[in-house]
């Protein structure tokens, strides 16, 4: 017997595609909300049972309202995920405006059982003083590494305010998501590994004292489904993973592939300078850069988090970074992106 219907916004994105596949595997009926211009290669084939496409945009309220009609849940993963874009106002148009529309749709339909909102660890702010932060942390809003971070903080406030007004919304905060799949900015780790193994990133991007929380995309997808089934409205859940440095990431990748480790560290001022050059080039060629100044700004902070609450309440069970790399590195090789 088919489970209830889930509307997935951002379904053509890196995480969104994984969410659609995972939901279908668990027996849900999936309505994928996509734009007419979206690349659908990461989605199930259109003829897949219990899978349907619905066209529109999260910034277009009527199309979103039509898509959500008859659905039991909304899984809102649509977002503009980039460290830098030439028109930063788009971050608020999509990341804030899109969430406002989802909340308003929920209010108008009246029968949506739950909104599961994909936020970001950036919305909580960096971990200060060597601590491992949790869901109780509130972003200090004194400074932001990027306009993306600023927009996710603003959206987080809107989600929490809606919850206080009785909207059945659960907020999830994934870490640095990685794994097989689309090579978008949402999968920055795979892109950095490609640069590393093709010798375009010859050194470490941190000295080993930086901390990021790495989340395998399949674990994050399972965490979203658990939030549909077990998440308490109004609660926040970190869907993070192992806290490690980029030095550890590159060293682990070298060991697993029996290749040499980087021999030097690239100073952050060099990364920032390269980022500014990349931005200038981007303005000319119209292609977004892999590295921009916000990349260096992010690396100057610690982003270590605990997912104990999600483990306890959702049954979230993230794999180690080594286990995740054992999946993603062969995929990169078999896909022809790297050689080792």
UniProtKB/TrEMBL annotation:
<dbReference type="GO" id="GO:0004029">
    <property type="term" value="F:aldehyde dehydrogenase (NAD+) activity"/>
</dbReference>
<protein>
    <recommendedName>
        <fullName>NAD-dependent epimerase/dehydratase domain-containing protein</fullName>
    </recommendedName>
</protein>
<dbReference type="InterPro" id="IPR036291">
    <property type="entry name" value="NAD(P)-bd_dom_sf"/>
</dbReference>
<dbReference type="InterPro" id="IPR001509">
    <property type="entry name" value="Epimerase_deHydtase"/>
</dbReference>
<dbReference type="Pfam" id="PF01370">
    <property type="entry name" value="Epimerase"/>
</dbReference>
<feature type="domain" description="NAD-dependent epimerase/dehydratase">
    <location>
        <begin position="6"/>
        <end position="237"/>
    </location>
</feature>
<dbReference type="InterPro" id="IPR051783">
    <property type="entry name" value="NAD(P)-dependent_oxidoreduct"/>
</dbReference>
<dbReference type="GO" id="GO:0005737">
    <property type="term" value="C:cytoplasm"/>
</dbReference>
């Amino acid at each position: 017997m088919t489970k209830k219907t889930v509307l997935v916004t951002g379904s053509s994105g890196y995480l969104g595609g994984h969410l659609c596949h995972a939901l279908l595997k668990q027996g849900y009926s999936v309505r994928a909300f996509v734009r007419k211009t979206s690349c659908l290669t990461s989605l199930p084939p259109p003829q897949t049972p219990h899978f349907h496409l619905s066209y529109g945009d999260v910034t277009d309220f009527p199309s979103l309202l039509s898509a959500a009609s008859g659905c039991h849940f909304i899984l809102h993963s649509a977002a503009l995920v980039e460290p830098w874009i030439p028109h930063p106002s788009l971050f608020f148009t999509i990341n804030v405006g899109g969430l406002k529309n989802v909340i308003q749709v929920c209010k108008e339909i009246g029968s949506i059982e739950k909104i599961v909102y994909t936020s970001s660890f950036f919305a909580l702010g960096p971990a200060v003083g060597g601590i491992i932060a949790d869901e109780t942390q509130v972003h200090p809003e004194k400074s932001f590494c990027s306009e993306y971070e600023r927009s996710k903080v603003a959206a987080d406030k809107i989600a929490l305010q809606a919850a206080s007004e009785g909207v059945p919304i659960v907020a999830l905060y994934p870490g640095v998501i990685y794994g097989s799949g689309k090579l978008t900015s949402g999968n920055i780790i795979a892109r950095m590994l490609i640069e590393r193994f093709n010798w375009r990133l010859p050194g470490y991007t941190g000295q080993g004292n930086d901390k990021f929380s790495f989340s395998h995309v399949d674990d994050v997808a399972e965490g979203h489904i658990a939030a549909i089934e077990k998440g308490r409205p109004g609660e926040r859940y970190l869907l993070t993973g192992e806290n490690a440095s980029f030095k550890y990431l590159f060293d682990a990748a070298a060991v697993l592939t029996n290749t040499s480790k980087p021999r030097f560290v690239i100073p952050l001022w060099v990364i920032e300078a390269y980022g500014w050059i990349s931005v200038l080039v981007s303005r000319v060629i119209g292609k977004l850069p892999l590295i921009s100044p916000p990349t260096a700004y992010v690396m100057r902070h610690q982003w270590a988090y605990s997912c104990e609450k999600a483990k306890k309440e959702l049954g979230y069970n993230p794999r180690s970074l080594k286990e995740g790399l054992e999946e993603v590195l062969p995929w990169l090789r078999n896909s022809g992106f790297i050689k080792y």
